[in-house]
Amino acid sequence: MLLSQIRRADGSLAVVAREGTEAYEVRGAESVHALAMACIGAGASLSAFVGQQGFGAAVDLEEAYEEGRLLSPVHHPDPAHLHLTGTGLTHLGSAATRDSMHQKAAGDPDTLTDSMKMFRMGLESGKPQNGAAGVQPEWFYKGNGSAVVAPGAALVSPAFADDAGEEPEIAGIYVIAPDGTPFRIGFALSNEFSDHVMERVNYLYLAHSKLRPAAFGPEILVGRLPDDIRGTSRIRRGEEIVFEKPFLSGEANMSHSIANLEHHHFKYDLFRQPCDVHVHMFGTATLSFADGVRTAPGDLFEIEAPGFGLPLRNVLRTTPALRGEGMQTVRAL
Questions:
Q1: Bond before 218 cis per omega within 30 degrees
Q2: How many Cα atoms occupy the beta-carbon half-sphere of 267 within 13 Å?
């Protein structure tokens, strides 16, 4: 089952469920967040609960996409209670580009970089077989719900950015129960938008490079994540495709298990606050930046993978530098 959210013609929100090509509104569902919390309260699975709720009007999701009425597939009524986070160096092959970038920064090709050290740690201990916790991955914070960009909307790069590049990934979508237990709603495509030129200057700039908006969806895959995901990431510039490459995900293509990544995120009390929403991106090994592509305003990012519903599309925009813009100043009270 796939879940999404749309804006009706009258401005109200509808939750949409579909299996195959037919999509329908879910009766009585105010939002995916509210639906998930109701499932937790009822002790029911999402699929079973949606079936009990029943279905209303049929929905043309592609038409809603074209009309700009397709929303991010989950939100929190208070954006500060939605957390955008992610992990890196989790996929087989994901260390190569990062390692090359950081070797150049270090100036010593014979030195084993921290990126390669961490990647090897994941290969050795990222998939424990005994039910215990494995090695922890690289982890980063991207922002809260105010940084979420809907499918079809613009990913805006700030004027001070050095680069604006896509990262095609799978994200886990979670909600926290009233007792602090994390529940997974499902999985979605995501674009973990980043500044790779800034990161290349120095690995310690990684945290800065990730403080950018992100998009995910348009639909949430409810149920088990496929072991072998083979998607496509492309960049359209007008009528031309300037980049197109497959991306791989799923545990068959990862150095960490999903359970291990989830454990190391939710082991912190901070991330088990009742009713919060978490969108956690699991990493990638495919970047247009690694192939020498420099993006430009107006480029259209497109990420798709079988089983995840409609493609995730977002256009790149940049914030113009304003005249007189300079240092941010803080006023004393």
A1: yes
A2: 14
pLDDT digit string (tens) for 231-242?
A: 999 999 999 999
The DSSP bridge pattern shows strands 22-26 and 13-19 to be antiparallel
**Tokens representing 93?**
């092959």
CA 10 to chain centre: 29
How far, in Å, CA of 315 to CA of 230, rounded?
23
Show the tokens assigned to 1: 């089952």
Single out the residue of 171, 165, 164 nearest to residue 73, CA to CA: 171
Q: Which residues are registered as beta bridge partners of 227?
A: none
Could you give the CA distance from residue 216 to residue 185 in angstroms, rounded to a whole number? 14
Structure token digits, residue 276: 């919060």
Strand residues in 182-250 grouped as ranges (E): 182-191, 214-216, 220-221, 229-237, 240-249
**CA–CA distance, 218 with 4 (Å, rounded to integer):** 6
Q: pTM score > 0.90 for this model?
A: yes
Local mean pLDDT, 10-residue blocks, the chain (333 residues):
96 96 96 98 95 96 97 98 95 66 52 80 86 91 98 96 96 98 98 95 93 98 96 97 96 94 97 98 93 96 98 95 73 96
Residue 154: Cβ within 10 Å count: 16
**Residue 293's beta-bridge partner residues?**
none
**15, 2 in Cβ contact below 8 A?**
no
